[in-house]
Design goal:
Layout (H helix, E strand, L loop, with lengths): L16 H24 L127 E3 L6 E3 L4 E7 L16 E11 L2 E13 L6 E2 L4 E5 L10 E7 L7 E2 L11 E9 L10 E6 L5 E5 L16 E7 L1 E6 L8 E6 L4 E7 L4 E2 L12
Parallel strand pairs: 10-16
Antiparallel strand pairs: 1-8, 2-7, 3-4, 3-6, 4-5, 5-7, 5-8, 8-9, 10-13, 11-12, 11-14, 14-15, 16-17
Amino acid sequence: MVSVTYTHPNGNDASNLHTLTMKSVFSLRILLFTIILAACAPSLAPLVTIPTTQSPNRLISTSASSPTPTPDHKLAMSSKAPTQAVLAETPIPLSTSTINTMELFFPTIIPAAGAEYRPPLYPTPWALSPFDHFFFAAPIAATYPGDPIWDYRYGGIFFGPDVIHTGIDIPAPRGAEVLAAGPGTVVWAGIGLYSGSSYNLKDPYGLAVAIRHDFGYKDQPLYTVYAHMEEVDVIVGQWVTTGDVVGHVGSTGMTTGPHLHFEVRLGDNDFWKTRNPELWISPPQGYGVLVGRVMSTYGERLDSYLVLLKSLDTEKQYSVKTYGPLTVNSDAYYNENVVLGDLPSGVYELNIPYAALNRKINIQILPGQITYFSFFGYNGYDFTPPPIPQAGMP
């Protein structure tokens, strides 16, 4: 949105009347021209700076927020067309209804000015623990800010408890190259990934690519998904290697602006088989990942629960929410419900407000590694590693 304020000069000097009139006409023309330009500009989420405070009742972030939908807003399965026109070469037959099994919507939040840029990633595969699996490179070049949208990470809830995010959203400008996260064969390219129909122009993923990789995990195949693209540069059956361009960032499908929606799927190329991509993408060099299981005093998982983190080295503050109750899947080993990646190594203050009290503890993030914790309400924190998963678990 563009906001224009026109201030009329005040004065009673009759000798300035003619000059005042001409300035008013000229300013009015500028105002009309600016309004016309604003009407033609794409509608993007405004930049918002959320106050950074240590109060547990205030969110701590410098990310911007998405526009709030009206109460009767229908999400991905509404009759609205995608926000971005489909490529001219895409066939457009008679419209096909989207299958009505899950309402999906992918909001876009523009990163705040001054967002950090990532250093190069550790080489893939990267695993300092026998239970880690950083198999994939980032799907967006390190020249762009790589942090996923803070309040719409994997398992995030944006519009309601029935709309759970099955991937991460990586901010990047329209037209930025989308890169294959690993070698494999393209098994989907175009419209219709969610609905299964290549003619469904209302599919919430928009123009998307899915890759079945040359490697798997625990005898199960691995897939990655790249959605909302402006154009797709590969075809089904094509083999790609890590870093090959598979398309360009766009805003097709049900979204509010350009970004890349990225998923990791284990076992089947299926909406219900996703895992948290931040446990699969190799971290930037010198960065680590925080993984946790946040529960009540009685051992119940706390869904969509706020977790606060502050670097004691830089004073930078982070916040993330635990997974929502549906759709998403935890790692077999970590059994986590919160992940916060791309953290520079160092000492941090971890704070999980519980029962009106701040539960704070200092932790250390090590480069290239996962720092794991459990939280049990009144009983506080536990840093004991998870038990080894039983044979046959995914």
